[in-house]
Specification:
Elements lengths: L3 H5 L9 E6 L7 H7 L3 H6 E2 L8 E9 L2 E19 L4 E10 L10 E4 L8 E3 L14 E5 L16 E3 H9 L3 H8 L2 E8 L5 E6 L4 H12 L5 H10 L7 E9 L5 H15 L10
Parallel strand pairs: 1-3
Antiparallel strand pairs: 1-7, 2-5, 3-4, 4-5, 4-6, 6-8, 9-12, 10-11, 10-12
Length: 281
């Protein structure tokens, strides 16, 4: 099988110059993958809890699914990191400055490697020889996509499960496939709070239906909704980054608004969002 390092033209003598970053999220393993989709992976990677990038270059591998990692690029570390903190969540860490190396960039988001990581470390030396399992330098390519993964293609109503950052990017960039799909169906949607598990059921039947409603959420996180506005007022504007959006049911545009509202009430009853969630009526 074809080795990743052979494709990247990294020789054995150069291994000592590289850190491998197996990029995974703390609570959501696919967080860095979603950051990649919205064009924010570089910035996400540059914020570290420790001084993890102690070598000139970082080889980024982004978690995709169990034992499968996506090539996210090679980054040059510029200068030394400086301490940073986020007052809203009491997070402290280090901010790096990096530059994407112009080397095999056409493979970013297209090449996937199969690698069973049998150790906990997410930041390792490329020449590392683990006690068990494959050496990282021997990682093999499992697949190469024809084009880079992206959020530009709408995958279907039953596959929508996106966080606030992704929704904001879709609306900001006015991605045509998403706008076309969400503008042409009435429906019932769900907003879930990832921290508490509480849910909010809403419906959309305006001129541009779900797209119009979700564009309002993308603007400020609450879209004018009283319950969500109260939640953000209590916890701060940044709390909107805990929201995830999915679609429970889509309906034909010819159906009356009363029918859509009836379906909204049905889902509120099914999911008990008035009693245990974020719906108040």
């Amino acid at each position: 099988m074809l080795k990743l390092l052979d494709v990247l033209n990294i020789s054995e003598t150069d291994l000592k110059n590289y850190k491998v970053h197996f990029a995974t999220g703390t609570n959501d393993k696919k967080k860095p993958y979603h950051q990649f989709l919205i064009g924010a992976f570089k910035e996400w990677q540059e914020c570290q809890t420790n001084k993890n990038f102690s070598r000139p270059y970082v080889l980024s591998l982004i978690y995709y699914e169990k034992d499968v990692w996506m090539f996210g690029g090679i980054y040059k570390v510029i200068g030394k990191p400086y301490p940073i903190e986020h007052s809203e969540d009491n997070w402290r860490g280090w901010k790096y400055s990096t530059e994407l190396v112009d080397h095999q960039t056409d493979l970013i988001g297209r090449v996937f490697v199969s690698y069973k990581k049998e150790y906990r470390q997410s930041y390792i030396n490329l020449e590392m020889s683990p006690e068990s399992g494959m050496r990282p330098q021997d990682m093999c390519i499992s697949s190469i996509l024809e084009k880079r993964v992206s959020i530009t293609d709408f995958g279907g109503f039953d596959e929508v499960n996106i966080d606030y950052e992704t929704l904001h990017a879709i609306v900001r960039d006015n991605i045509s496939s998403w706008r076309s799909a969400l503008s042409n169906v009435k429906g019932v949607y769900l907003i879930a709070d990832k921290l508490t598990g509480k849910q909010y059921v809403g419906s959309a039947y305006g001129e541009e239906c779900i797209w119009q409603r979700w564009a309002a959420y993308a603007h400020d996180g609450h879209g004018g909704n009283r319950e969500l506005k109260t939640l953000l007022a209590e916890h701060g504007e940044e709390y909107k980054y805990n929201f995830k959006y999915s679609i429970l049911e889509v309906c034909n545009m010819n159906l009356g608004n009363d029918y859509i509202i009836g379906r909204e009430n049905y889902w509120k009853e099914v999911l008990q969002t008035r009693k245990f969630g974020l719906n108040k009526n």
